[in-house]
Amino acid sequence: MLTLDLTNTPHWHDLAPGVRVQLRPLTTALMVATRSDPVVESLPEEASDEERAVAFAKALARRAVLAWEGIAESLYYSWSKEFLEAGKRRLSGDTARQATSPEVKDLRSESLALKECVADLTLENRLLKKSMTGNGEYGE
Predict the structure, then answer these.
(1) Does residue 79 lie in a domain region?
(2) pLDDT tens across 75-110, in order?
(3) β-bridge partners, 19
(4) Are residues 27 and 75 in the same domain?
(5) Could you tell me which residues come within 8 angstroms of residue 73 by beta carbon, excluding any fewer than 6 positions away?
(6) C-alpha span between 77 and 83 (Å, rounded)
(7) DSSP state of 37
(8) I need a labelling partner for 94 at 20 to 30 A (CA). Which of 57, 83, 88, 106 fits?
(9) Is the CB of residue 39 less than 8 Å from the CB of residue 59?
(10) pTM over 0.90
């Protein structure tokens, strides 16, 4: 039997063995904000009920996650725009991007290892050349 629970506390629900989700209550403010969401308002008049329901559900889910995680909507849209622009650049063949911190760290350690390798090989080369001349002089 279903019961109406009007508390504001989140509840854990078991979906399957080992799979739990936390459901938080939906506020009136969130519903009102979703109704005035640009995506929902921009639907054409001839949109079907199913299209309206899907657009509303997506907008509600996005707004709920942003509200629950404390992410400003403007930040979400700037991230979204940045992500879409990066995707467009990648599709057009531009694969340059900013390196991440771990990548920079890996590149620096690889660079150091290569420098040490070059130094070792240079020293070995000089020693071989000295042994070939026989008199200890450095010769070409």
Answers:
(1) yes
(2) 988 888 988 888 888 788 766 777 888 899 999 999
(3) 16
(4) yes
(5) 63, 66
(6) 10
(7) -
(8) 106
(9) yes
(10) no
